[in-house]
What we know:
The protein is an alpha/beta fold and 254 residues long. The protein is built from 10 helices and 11 strands.
Amino acid sequence: MNQKLKVGLLGFGKAGKAVAAVLAQSPDVSLRWVIRNSNLHEHQSAIELLDVNSEDPAVIYSLKEFRTGKVLDSEPVEVLIDFSGKKTIMYYGPQVLKHKTAVVTAVSHYDEPEINYLNTLADQIPLLWSPNITIGVNFLMIASRVLKDIAPQADIEIIEEHFKLKPELSGTAKKLAANLDVPEHQVNMIRAGGIIGKHETLFGFPFQTIRLTHESISREAFGSGALFAATNMDRSIPGLFTMEDLLKPYFSMS
């Protein structure tokens, strides 16, 4: 019987809780601890709060306590999964270097200083960054580029939909636009209700239309993506990787 991969999770908001539930119920990983940006329920098990069936410890620690380095020192993990904020990497960077811990970060946006730091860390440890870590969206990214290569003359439209209070263009839409040479201001943005996230690329031909669509129907989709990344990335090779790096081999056809 293979030993479970030990993972730790940063972030326990709406997305973080959904991710924690997926990780805790997976037969492939063991969720050792969860970091949240408060001392609420500190040192309790996230399993009790999530009401899922799991034997994982999933001990909750505050970000303040995590910054001291004691958590990783006393309970090292093989992969740290980050669903927190863009500044958090500055706090845990020295710790993951010390322990040679692989990182999967799903933070949607980093500024230039954080991106530079990501690259610095990736010189010494395996680090995978995906602004949208769902398997479906990353499949959509690759498939859209393949179709653009096949038919560069097609008209291309990008449509992205999110909940009403999300003000900015999604990071996924920005990446799609960059990959398909579509100016960001031409991306069609819809904000309504509680839409979790929907992205579509439309290819218009004279006699046909092709639509590639991905929609997240629950935040657990992020957990499935994080689980795939953690269990499929090569933890023996330092470097900055993406979900596309993990999926591209599946596009090779015999």
